[in-house]
């Protein structure tokens, strides 16, 4: 039972955060609000369409707020909500695991996509 | 610079663990060794082919060991390696975040795939 509960909670998290880029995106937003162009620069490998979809999914989940400033040209800013800040420990643990993966001595099995 | 390092470590983790099912799979293996059929039962929504690919990716990364017992019929068991145990805190944080997501009061934004 515990196992089932554990399992489906992990699944719920991964449904939202399991995409290749979402937690990376969140890691940049944890530093403060960003514009779309900032995020494009931070993550040049992600397509514009995918970035848009990922931002929208986080916004729909209430973890991110999109603010449009009526300047000329219009400025659009993305910031984590208070709920979104709850992803900080998730990003931290992924960062630590990634550092460990990369620090393994040569000859260790390699990560494939 | 810190940001770049943080970013690419998160990316390294997500490259390995970011699929929809991999951390869920790991969460079951953290309970002990499993046979392929056990995992199929634990995760009925994943296809046989995808489960095979996910197991192989974790094996190639040195986080999982596949053992073939020469019984009749042959028994194949999957177990986390010592390195694989390092994914425990990752699963824990995802489980906690998932529990929080599911416990949000009704009317809160919903998670979409």
TrEMBL record, chains A, B:
InterPro entries xref list: HTH_HxlR (IPR002577), WH-like_DNA-bd_sf (IPR036388), WH_DNA-bd_sf (IPR036390)
Keyword vocabulary terms for this entry: DNA-binding, Transcription, Transcription regulation
PROSITE patterns given in the database record: HTH_HXLR
GO molecular function per UniProt: DNA binding
Keyword Zinc: no
Domain HTH hxlR-type: from-to ranges: 8-106
SUPFAM superfamilies per record: Winged helix' DNA-binding domain (SSF46785)
Highest rank taxon of the organism: Bacteria
Pfam family name, one: HxlR
Keyword Phosphoprotein set for record: no
Protein's name in the database: Transcriptional regulator
Organism: Achromobacter aloeverae
Species lineage: Bacteria, Pseudomonadati, Pseudomonadota, Betaproteobacteria, Burkholderiales
